[in-house]
Amino acid sequence: MKTVHVAAAIIRKDNKILAAQRGYGEFKDGWEFPGGKLESGETGAQACIREIDEELHVAIGDLEYLCTVEHDYESFHLSMECFTCKISSGTINDSEHENLCWLESDQLWDVDWLPADIQVVKELEKAFGH
Ligand SMILES: Nc1nc2c([nH]c(=O)n2[C@H]2C[C@H](O)[C@@H](COP(=O)(O)OP(=O)(O)OP(=O)(O)O)O2)c(=O)[nH]1
């Protein structure tokens, strides 16, 4: 099965994290962390910074590796590196998602996450002691 390498940004603000609802494609309407596929030669962190600039038009910093999720979808295997981070400059101007939502720590399960993201949210709960 084909492996797709993705980097995802868990953007933190105060006690909240940013969730995004996909606006197109196979997983339309599912909730995820902003990010996208690694380009050749890129590290996960580099892809994360580039994707967030392209999608949300902000710069991110303070990246901290959280986990890598391995998930088998029907038609591909996803290997997704996840980083927590903060916005270091700019104001979000979303060019790609249907919705964005800042979730408080007690709202993490209020959205319908993509299957692979369930594990990420569990890791987040562990990391932040919820
Ligand atoms: N960005 C992102 N993708 C995720 C998450 N969870 C998850 O299963 N995925 C899957 C959905 C997609 O199949 C793949 C990421 O593709 P993408 O469409 O965001 O990447 P991209 O912008 O580089 O790609 P493209 O649309 O230009 O082809 O990973 C997540 O939390 N964030």
TrEMBL record:
SUPFAM superfamilies per UniProt: Nudix
EC number: 3.6.1.55
PROSITE patterns on file: NUDIX, NUDIX_BOX
Gene3D superfamilies per UniProt: Nucleoside Triphosphate Pyrophosphohydrolase
Names of required cofactors: Mg(2+)
Superkingdom as given in the UniProt entry: Bacteria
Domain Nudix hydrolase: start-end pairs: 1-126
Record-annotated membrane-spanning stretches: none
InterPro entries named in the record: MutT-like, Nudix_hydrolase, NUDIX_hydrolase-like_dom_sf, NUDIX_hydrolase_CS, NUDIX_hydrolase_dom
PANTHER family: 8-OXO-DGTP DIPHOSPHATASE (PTHR47707), NUDIX HYDROLASE FAMILY PROTEIN (PTHR47707:SF1)
Protein name: 8-oxo-dGTP diphosphatase
Species this protein is from: Thermophilibacter gallinarum
